[in-house]
Amino acid sequence: MVAVLFIDLDGFKLINDTLGHEVGDAMLCSVAERLESLVRDSDTVARMGGDEFLMLLSEIGHEEDAARVAEKIVTSIAEPYQINDQELRTSPSIGISIYPQDAADENALIRSADTAMYHAKAAGRNNFQFYTGSMHEQVLQRLDLEHGLRLAIENDAFELDFQPQYDVDLGRITGFEALVRWRHGERGHIPPSEFIPIAEESGMIVQLGEAVLRKACLQMLAWHKAGMPAFRIAVNVSARQFWDGGFAERVREILEQTGTQAGWLELELTESTLLQHRGEKEKELLELRAMGIKIAIDDFGTGYSSLSYLKRLAIDRLKIDQSFVRELGHDSDSEAIVSAIIKLAQTLNIELVAEGVETVEAHDFLMAHGCTVMQGFLLGRPQQAAAWNSIAKCY
Ligand code: C2E
Ligand code: CA
Ligand code: CA
């Protein structure tokens, strides 16, 4: 039996993009050394390109032998790397194919190992997977979706829904969150939870995110021209988009091109996006704030527990995560967390919005504890912009 291991490093592009190619190159060399040290002389280790390595175990007795090597790789690659006085980390996603059962020739073996590697990525990275026949079908589906996504971006085939944020105390809408929608030609409506991760991994999120931002700005203007008050519009920014070079500059350009006031725009970032790397990116965030853009922390309470960044980065708003809001009225732990977040925001003078308000119980709890701005199905579902035009008459 022969085993082919397809090894891809997790998050390597981020290291390359944020710390530079020299650091990336040094890291690849260390990875190569570690891989070589794990195999016998008769085995082969090769770099395919980028952060992809291939390993050929030429004489194995059982599949378990390949699994044991893969296990060693996972442990070894995850050890920290000391590069230019910096401690860096990565992890591998490994796909394994076996000759003769998985494929009969070298190209097919590599393809199968590559397919299995994708499954390792999808299974949360930092693990290995053996190739199975059904994987092929799933990979085809994913490629199909990726292809469809690329076409949709080229043809600008995305739409936005807008979900209102109500200030219950004032008795009116104060803003909207823009949520991207994609109707696939054959498969119909595909939820963002399915295609945003693909857009992230393939890098398409940068273009998609810009298109969303531009559409949101144009909608804001259209509403304003139609005599509606200047609602604040919140736009989601994904990690990859934020870490892509020149994000603040791109936002500035889009605001200028569309003639939108920065003060109407709120950008939603998650805690993990902000805290993945600190330092230079914080400057960019402060730049955005200096332009007058509001910064909100999405899904607050689910990420890191470090809170010092709230003041350091002068965060404008916290969005209390749905997972806590959903439990209000049933679960005392969630209630304790929500009331603590409300107190924290009040003390630090940060605005709040509770997400996923579906029930009267949640609404009442939030009101009683002083969180008056709410977003959720109880108050309004995400709908196309036109559905909200008529509310202009209410003001
Ligand atoms: P999110 O930013 O946390 O957005 C809120 C999600 O909760 C939306 O799902 C919204 O429809 C849903 N929601 C709102 N109120 C309720 C409620 O009362 N109950 C329940 N059960 N759900 C509620 P959606 O539109 O499917 O979006 C899912 C996620 O996809 C978003 O989570 C966001 O992370 C991402 N996403 C959506 N649009 C964009 C975008 O333009 N760019 C990026 N980067 N991500 C986006
Ligand atoms: Ca959001
Ligand atoms: Ca959220």
In short:
By secondary structure, the protein is of the alpha/beta class. The chain has 16 helices and 17 strands.
**Under the CATH scheme, which architecture of the largest domain would be assigned?**
Alpha-Beta Barrel
How large a portion of the residues is in β-strands, by DSSP E? Answer: 15-25%
The amount of helix comes to: 40-55%
Q: Overall pLDDT, averaged?
A: 92
SS summary, helix count = 16
The major pleated sheet works out as:
10 strands, mixed
Measured on Cα atoms, how large is the radius of gyration?
A: 24 Å
Distance between the ends: 74 Å
CATH T-level topology of the largest domain: TIM Barrel
Oligomer: single chain
Number of spatially distinct domains: 2
| The top level CATH class name of the largest domain | Alpha Beta
